[in-house]
Amino acid sequence: MMNPARGLVSRMTAMVSLMSLALVSIAACQSRSAFDSSAIARFVLAQVRIDRLGAGLPTPPLGPEGVSIDVIDSSGAVRVYRVTPWILEHWHPYLVAVSDVGMHGLGGFPAPEPCRVFVGGNDQVQNTSQARQIASKLAQLLDPYGGGEISFPADSMKNDELRLAWRRAAREGFLADTVIRGASSHVVRITVLSHLSRQYPMAWQRVTFVFELGHNAELSGWSMRTGRPVYAVDSQ
Fold first, then answer.
1. Cα separation of 106 and 72, whole Å?
2. Could you tell me if 55 and 114 are in contact, meaning their C-beta atoms sit under 8 angstroms apart?
3. Nearest Cα to Cα of residue 61 among 71, 48, 77, 74
4. Fewest CB within 10 A of the end CB: N or C in the chain?
């Protein structure tokens, strides 16, 4: 026959365990949602004021209601938002990464911080194909104009605009894409066209990225070089 006192202790222990699990779950959810939309908007608007001052442009009073926020990537532990200050005509958007390690600027910011965001996970980079896929995603999230609207060479036959843009970018010359596999990392060079969609007339700009990816897909180093914008119109 079971000792009543022992049974009570067992039930209390089980209840404490369940409460501990619940508290851990709540803490995890809170850490992921620590930055609400107004905090993300304030983070971007602070950069907008600095960027416009550097460009010699006036900055009207701006509040969170003057931006739109859209999720463009939510894979893994990092969620990436596109923040567009729509109230400022022809001003570019910004990409912001939110994770358990904080909030950091990506594309559109003058000094992106991808190495503080993409610190690796459970996935391993096992071959050059995986390295290219990760590099392609990083190129989108580091689009210097913040829109995440980029085109790869394989897209050059999708429509007349891209065909013309890639042909004119080729006149300037750029290095071919490549992957160098090392003992503990992959170094990927990739060239894309970034869509200057808020500029008139709309144009595309060549951007060459180099990413060094560790064995667990962590980003240990990167660089970016931009070329001259090309206009995908027949008048050029």
1. 12
2. no
3. 48
4. N
What's the burial of 4, exposed, middle or buried (CB within 10 Å: 0-12/13-18/19+)? exposed
CA distance 49 to 53: 6
Pair 208, 225: CB distance under 8 Å: yes
Give the residue from 80, 70, 159 showing the smallest Cα distance to 112. Answer: 80
Domain boundaries, the chain: 33-113, 118-236
Which phi and psi angles does 126 have, rounded to 5°? Answer: -100, -20
Q: Print pLDDT tens along the chain (236 aa).
A: 445 444 433 443 433 333 333 323 323 333 444 568 999 999 999 999 999 999 999 888 888 898 999 998 886 788 999 999 988 888 999 999 998 889 999 999 999 999 999 887 667 788 999 999 999 999 999 999 998 889 998 888 888 888 888 999 888 888 899 999 998 899 999 999 999 877 777 789 999 999 999 988 899 999 999 998 888 776 54
Amino acid at 230: V
Cα–Cα distance between 94 and 41 in angstroms, integer?
A: 10
Q: How many CB atoms lie within 10 A of CB 115?
A: 14
- CB-based burial, 24-48: b 16+ in 10 Å, e otherwise: eeeeeeeeeeebeeeebbebbbebb
Which amino acid is present at 197?
S
Pairing of strands 94-99, 185-196: unpaired
Cβ neighbours of 216 (radius 10 Å):
12
